């Protein structure tokens, strides 16, 4: 389906202080792909994601979601299609209770009350946070906030899921649960992560950003086997591909 396609053409972003964050980024992601955007800190990953549903505007270049360019006129429809989970959940949670936060999106889309209730229940169950619905977000732990932030996006049933460091702050159980959820999400997934083992398990394609430029775009396993490329971009192999430091055996 064409509306699930994400196309970035010659995207450039310069911050007000003159910092060039993105330099002529181009790629195309088709329906159902699971793509990780990786790179060292400061590579431009978060800046790039913030362009995909209009939280940042490009200095130059174009973003298209399906058949439509991302503009002020198309932004409301595109934000219904592209669900964004921020790296810091505090940027996403602002209502008195968890329930109110997760219900905010569906209510603003005009869904009736009974459907909103069901969407909230389903989204919180998917992230294992149903028991938190009556709590104020500021009383939650970092990992709980992350799960609720993900639920606020899932409640809107996006066709394209964009996530910035989704496993950051999660304990091992919550990480496994999130990975299972992402594995079952049948539409397009785009996320950044330093959790390269998760990337290897969930993504068939990897895009490497380095100093605001695309340095590689291809099959995940092929890229992770390129030690020279990884070193040049200040990255390492996933732990599962590294040799055992004690016995020297392969992971």
In short:
This protein has 9 helices and 10 strands.
Explain this structure to me?
The protein is of the alpha/beta class and 251 residues long. It has one domain: Rossmann fold. 32% of the residues lie in helices and 24% in strands. It has helices spanning 45-49, 75-81, 98-108, 113-126, 142-154, 172-184, 196-202, 220-224, 227-232, and strands spanning 6-14, 20-29, 34-38, 60-65, 68-69, 82-85, 160-164, 188-192, 205-210, 213-219. The strands form two sheets. Strands 6-7-8-3-9-10 form a six-stranded mixed beta sheet. Helix 3 (98-108) crosses helix 4, helix 3 (98-108) packs parallel to helix 5 and helix 4 packs across helix 5. The radius of gyration is 18 Å and the shape is globular. It starts with 5 loop residues before the first strand and ends in a 19-residue tail after the last helix.
Low-confidence stretches: none
Radius of gyration (CA) equals 18 Å
Query: How much is the average pLDDT?
Result: 91
CATH fold category name: Rossmann fold
Q: Between the first and last Cα atoms, what is the distance in angstroms? A: 39 Å
Instruction: Output the number of helix runs.
Output: 9
Helix content: 25-40%
Identify the CATH architecture: 3-Layer(aba) Sandwich
What would you call the shape?
Answer: globular
Number of domains: 1
Q: What summary fits the major beta sheet?
A: 6 strands, mixed
What is the fourth-level CATH superfamily?
P-loop containing nucleotide triphosphate hydrolases
β-sheet strand percentage = 15-25%
Instruction: Tell how many strands the DSSP assignment holds.
Output: 10
Q: Would you state the CATH class?
A: Alpha Beta
The ordered H/E elements are: EEEHEEHEHHHEHEHEEHH
Side-by-side strand order of the widest sheet? 6-7-8-3-9-10
Classify the secondary structure makeup into a structural class. alpha/beta
